[in-house]
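Lab channel / #folding
Pinned by the channel admin:
"Please post every new chain as: sequence first, then the structure tokens as a reply. Keep commentary short and put observations after the output so the thread stays searchable."

First post following the new format, from NK:
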Amino acid sequence: MKEVYEFLKECGTYYLATMDGDQPRVRPFGTVDIFEDKLYIQTGKSKNVSKQMQENPKIEICAYKDGKWLRVTAEVVRDENKEAKKHMLDNYPNLQDKYSPEDDNTEVLYLKNAKAIISSFTEEDVTYEF
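Reply from TO:
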């Protein structure tokens, strides 16, 4: 999991895919955190992406850096723990003017049943499951 976290953190922007009914939706994301041995992402509950993940928690993440790409398939689980929200926002102070651990909008989600594959054209795939 740490390797996946570091890949996402280093690339800065990754792409998260959800389902909106039968239509895939992809958008850029930038938040990633490890809290209590779980990999987390963050968004706002008022956003369509949040509604899509609550309806269908299966997601896919894709990222690229230095000639390698990462794909993660997982299910997301909403965590209402204020400490998890605070930990995320402490690592992203630029979001603190939009989100707070105490508000009803801040959403942190951890990945479960995750399978991550780092690939390139020059090396064998590396797979992680967490």
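NK: Residues 36 and 84 are 8 Å apart (CA to CA).
TO: also worth noting, The mean pLDDT is 98.
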